[in-house]
Design goal:
Layout: H1 9-16, H2 27-39, H3 54-65, E1 76-81, H4 84-102, H5 107-115, H6 120-123, E2 126-133, H7 150-168, E3 171-175, H8 181-188, E4 194-204, H9 213-216
Antiparallel strand pairs: 1-2, 2-4, 3-4
């Protein structure tokens, strides 16, 4: 994999001067950003077997690597899991964890839970484990003395960048959260001092849910944006400043 990435005008300008004009995007550019955000989906079962070309994967990883991070510590690593035997082992971890999770659900939800097939670990040609090195620049880096978990939050930002860039490339991503971390560590050889943040299934898709799958299948619905915005203090709604634009 050749580590060369495309540079935008802002990056090229930064090589010559530390500050450049922060112009707004064109309407077309802005629409593309919001389209990626609003059509991003958690893909469970719709993956195609096609391999992702190295140049496309590198663009996505580079987008993830440009996420904001506390103290510019860039605590993330990306383990690319292509080996079928490893993915079979991870799938076994998932199946054991899923069997345990169903027992804690309300009885009326168990049938629906079992119908939510998650086959991406095996169907997607690539899995990516995203980790956080919490001591990359020391245990108390810039900005972490009062909020030490901001390194984990920074890594979550990298996951979001990865997801949105993948959407722009026509690539689906599924986040597998039903895993026993200790077993995943053993399979991938992850040291104890490295935090596991996300395990992603990654691959091309030819179809995607127009609305989130869990909404379509009536597991949950999107909350009204106006119910989630407060002004100045917790629980105080803003005075007439929100609109229906946020209901994507």
């Amino acid at each position: 994999m050749a580590f060369e990435t495309e540079k935008g005008p802002e990056a090229e300008a930064a090589e010559d001067q530390p500050l450049a004009k922060a112009s707004p995007f064109t309407p077309q550019e802005r629409a593309a950003v919001y389209r990626a955000i609003h059509t991003r989906r958690d893909v469970r079962n719709e993956f195609l077997p096609d391999d992702i070309p190295d140049d496309v994967l590198l663009r996505i990883l580079d987008a993830a690597h440009h996420a904001p991070s506390v103290g510019f510590m860039q605590p993330w690593n990306f383990i690319l899991v292509r080996d079928s035997a490893l993915r079979e082992a991870v799938h076994g971890v998932f199946e054991r964890a899923a069997a345990a999770e169903v027992d804690v659900l309300q009885p009326e939800r168990r049938a629906l839970y079992r119908s939510l097939k998650l086959e991406g670990i095996l169907k997607a040609p690539l899995n990516v484990c995203v980790t956080c090195d919490r001591a990359r620049h020391g245990t108390t880096g810039l900005g972490r003395s009062q909020q030490p978990d901001t390194d984990i939050l920074s890594t979550a930002c990298a996951v979001q960048n990865f997801w949105l860039a993948a959407r722009a490339e026509g690539i689906g991503v599924g986040w597998v959260s039903i895993l026993r971390e200790c077993e995943l560590r053993d399979i991938l050889g992850i040291p104890e001092d490295i935090a596991v943040v996300a395990y992603l299934c990654v691959g091309y898709v030819d179809r995607a849910y127009v609305r989130p799958e869990l909404e379509v299948k009536r597991w949950a619905c999107r909350l009204p944006l106006e119910d989630l915005i407060f002004e100045n203090r917790w629980g105080v709604p803003p005075e007439g400043r929100t609109s229906e634009a946020g209901r994507g």
